[in-house]
Amino acid sequence: MRRAIAGVVAGLLLGAAPPPEGDSHRDLEAVDGAAALATVKAWNARSLATLEAQPHFAEDRARAARLLADPAKIATPDAILGDQVLNLWQDAAHPRGLWRIADLAGFAAGRPHWRTLIDIGALGAAEHRKWVFKGAECLAPAYVRCMVALSDGGGDAVVEREFDLAAGRFVPGGFTLPEAKTSLAWAGPDALYVATEYGPGSMTRSGYARIAKLWRRGTPLAAATLVAEGEVGDVSEAVASYADGDRQWPMVVRGIDFYHRAASHIAPDGRLVASPLPRDAQIEDVLDGRVIASLKSAWQGHPAGAIVAYRIADLLAGRTPAVERVFTPTPRQATVSVAAGMGRLWIQYLDDVSGRLVGLARDPAGHWAGAPVALPDKATVHLLAAAGRSAIAFAEVEAMLQPPTLYAVRPDAAPAVVQALPARFDAAGMTVEQRFATSRDGTRVPYFLVRKPGAAPGPVPALIHAYGGFELPQTPAYLINEPYRSGPAGLFWVERGNAYVLADLRGGGEYGPAWHDAALREKRQNAYDDLYAVAEDLVRTGITARGRIAVSGRSNGGLMAGVAMTQRPDLFGAAVIGSPLLDMKRYSHLLAGASWIGEYGDPDVPADWAFIRRYAPYQNLVKGRRYPVPFLYTSTRDDRVHPGHARKFAARLQDYGDPFFYYEAIEGGHAAGVEPAQDALRAALVAAYLELELPHDGPARHIGPR
């Protein structure tokens, strides 16, 4: 009965008279427009004045900065290059990071000797740029040269520069590419496959490269020869080269939409040979000459979610390759990541949202088998890297109350601890439970609940963090990293006697392709109904009460939080809306928005807009309705989700006389932060906001700045 009543309430809210379709705030889409920035600065100043004055703000900011800059953290293997390991290290002295290298054997033994390759902060200071390291593409099998990607301010667009690992410096006169959203791969020591901006007409509607070329050393980029060309309406044209022992297997991938792609192998003579995989399959890696791919839909007798393989040499020789079944998850499982090592395929998967890791080997008859690695249960497993010249891989394990531990895993051997972090907070009295709510259509929705039972009598304020999209699972992280993977606001919240929840909504990847498809396009409301079911379950079980629940999310999760605020103001008392999509009528025309049409639908198509319109937060704000006071945050330099979404939503709230908090960081890209100090500030702002709007000893106050 409770669920039926809630459904009626939601239906009434959805059916309320919508505001006019007109948009009077298009001027706020000018990212660096003088008027837009003046408005943003005024909102920032007003919000900061209130939040920084809260009792715990200074204490929280200082503690968050200490936690995030603490040098006692895992040195993760970002890549294994032959017998060496790469790592980007950030600490208080190097907030932008040190890109460094160590011997694999010493690293695996827990005694690495690091050699710094690039001090990112020092490089930026010398070149008067706000450099952010965005990764490197290194040439196998020698691993002497790399193409290093650097972003000025943290956006997705990067400058690419050739680097000599042995010499520890950029190559004078080496390959260099100007700022763009570039995809590249080595085509030998003196050539690159490059998909980048080549001038007018060379980019897709989504803002990514449309043309891939072969660029040879000593020639201008303009002289590069065509490899492949996509359509303007595609998402992107991308290139890749998979290291497999001493061999490279180059490919070009035409991204038709976010979930469909046409992959082709580049033969030694330059021919393009189409992969036999269905267009919604994802190529994961190459092992012993075989493509390893995950299936999103059933194909040739293999079920959706399965991992399959085929032999590349057969395809290049004109033969139809046999497709082998590598791994099949159960209905309660989902593959998360795959990495090929020396003769071994490592697969990270979820089992009812608990992390698992298995190493598989192929026998001569084409059968793949292996036993799960004995790692801690009821935790999150991150498969970090696998070695191509030795049978070793690395995995990190963490849980909400369990600090991260790095393991070296090998076939037929117990996992060995490489590095284990000490506890960073006192978890005494805290508990973690996995619970299940029942959604409106009867679907079982998992969530994790962290609290301190007995810390306070009766219902307490609750913070629900969720995402629900793009087949990305939400798995528990150590609490200092919750709820944004960049700030300890969740820890502060629980320590003060409140409840923190991580909800696993449909649309994510917690249970494989079917779980994602259940909230795709016209079925998106299922994800939001899942969120409301979790909130109502917390009320039903006495954890919290209506109006004392905050919803939190970033990016697609920011959309989710905006929807929750506008659809169910009866249920939520606060909303943390980070780097969000909110104007769903304009989203496909803003920056990379067109690339997400496969997820949401096309608002320019009337039939699609009919279902998008029902939940679009910007379009569903109604004057005179009492909403929870939101906290919106974004970054001016976010070149993925346009900051105009958050700006326009705030402006419409202002038009209607509704209070809100707003903070726009100048740099940080889509992550809305680059350095630990920036993440610490955001964590303290969120903590102050939550305490202000959902005080522990009373109902929501709704007192945001006007």
From TrEMBL:
Residues 493-690 form the Peptidase S9 prolyl oligopeptidase catalytic domain. SUPFAM superfamilies: alpha/beta-Hydrolases, Peptidase/esterase 'gauge' domain. Keywords: Hydrolase, Protease, Serine protease. Residues 40-412 form the Peptidase S9A N-terminal domain. It comes from the Bacteria. Gene3D superfamilies: alpha/beta hydrolase, Prolyl oligopeptidase, N-terminal domain. InterPro entries: AB_hydrolase_fold (IPR029058), Pept_S9A_N (IPR023302), Peptidase_S9_cat (IPR001375), Peptidase_S9A (IPR002470), Prolyl_oligopep/macrocyclase (IPR051167). This is Prolyl oligopeptidase family serine peptidase. It comes from Sphingomonas morindae.
